[in-house]
Design brief:
This protein is an alpha+beta fold. The protein has two domains: 162 residues, Ribosomal Protein S5, domain 2 (2-Layer Sandwich); 128 residues, GHMP kinase, C-terminal domain (Alpha-Beta Plaits). 43% of the residues lie in helices and 22% in strands. The chain contains nine helices and eleven strands. The strands form two sheets. Strands 1, 2, 3, 4, 5, 6 and 7 form a seven-stranded mixed sheet that branches. Strands 9-10-8-11 form a four-stranded antiparallel sheet. Helix 1 packs antiparallel against helix 3, helix 2 packs across helix 4 and helix 3 runs antiparallel to helix 4. The chain starts with a strand and ends with a strand. Bound molecules: (R)-mevalonate (MEV). (R)-mevalonate (MEV) binds next to helix 4 and helix 5.
């Protein structure tokens, strides 16, 4: 038995969402993080295949996200002590790449603690705990990552308005998610945008206005206009300094090959970018192109 949580991708509105603007995100159910507590040890040990972590709870770095998460779970679930067991974490989600690997780890571990200790946690409670840990990772998270991942449904989200499920079927878009292979910490990009807020605020506001248009176009299913809005969103993200040379080059491959639109997803400065193809066959052609230059593509 184990527990899991999906990755997420932000279609429109990253960064601006930190400042109260709306954003649209979808879960990626086929890309997951798994957590399992196995009663097989004489101390509580945490092993994470992907990060190489293999430590007893008592030896964890006190400032680490996982230490905070376990401590928060001890208090929220009113646990007297940790069992003699191993918490195994395994993930298909690339880390530091804009797909919510941090929030997925938190949600998978929270679900596994609730399962193992036979405690009931509502989705709202899971989301709140995961948000606390996002604060440790990011500094100023909007909450969109943990919310998309906890509810595992397409959402339109804002900090003050919370979230509502997205009524259009955005999961059927001929969309490629391409990993640039460049790892970049969310906290760095978010902090730089904040440090340059006076200059960035007009672009962040424009991103917010664009998301409202994108919401309508996604509901209408108008692929060409959705693509154009992706390009505009990318342009505004570049203005606030969260694109990078390599991503700009990869995006120009999409443009030359008749993609309808492309943009980074998540914090940027590397990580993953989205490409909207004209249809499924075109998406397969573009996938091959990127794979031929050594990039990993999620369809
Ligand atoms: C990260 O996936 C999205 C950002 O907007 C940060 C956040 O909303 O917490 C860059």
């Amino acid at each position: 038995m184990n527990s899991s949580a999906s990755a997420k991708t932000i279609l429109f509105g990253e960064h601006a969402v930190v400042y109260g603007e709306p954003a649209i995100a979808i879960p990626l159910p086929n890309l997951r993080t798994y957590a399992e507590i196995r009663t097989d040890n004489n101390e509580f040990r945490i092993i994470s295949e992907n990060t190489g972590l293999n430590k007893a709870y008592n030896d964890l770095d006190p400032t680490s996200g996982i230490k905070h998460l376990i401590d928060l779970l001890i208090s929220e679930l009113q646990l007297d002590e940790l069992p003699h067991a191993t918490l195994m974490i395994r993930s298909d989600i690339p880390i530091a790449s804009g797909l919510g690997s941090g929030a997925a780890m938190s949600v998978a571990v929270i679900r596994e603690f609730a399962r193992y200790f036979d405690k009931n946690l509502s989705s709202g409670e899971i989301n709140e705990i995961a948000f606390e840990i996002e604060k440790i990772y990011h500094g100023f998270p909007s909450g969109i990552d943990n919310t998309t991942i906890t509810y595992e449904t397409p959402i339109i989200f804002s900090k003050s308005g919370g979230f509502s499920r997205f009524s259009a079927d955005v999961t059927k878009l001929p969309l490629l998610i391409v990993d640039s292979g460049i790892r970049s910490r969310t906290v760095d990009a978010v902090t730089d945008v904040r440090n340059n807020y006076e200059n960035n605020k007009k672009y962040l506001r424009l991103i917010g206005l664009l998301v409202k248009k994108a919401e309508r176009k996604l509901k209408e299913g108008n692929l060409e206009e959705i693509g154009m809005l992706m390009n505009e969103n990318q342009h505004l993200l570049a203005q606030i300094g969260v694109s990078c040379e390599e991503i700009d080059q990869y995006i120009s491959i999409a443009e030359v090959n008749r993609a309808l639109g492309s943009k980074i997803t998540g914090a940027g400065r590397g990580g993953n970018f989205l490409v909207l193809a004209q249809n499924r066959e075109h998406a397969c052609e573009l996938k091959k192109l990127y794979e031929n230059i050594g990039l990993r593509v999620f369809l």
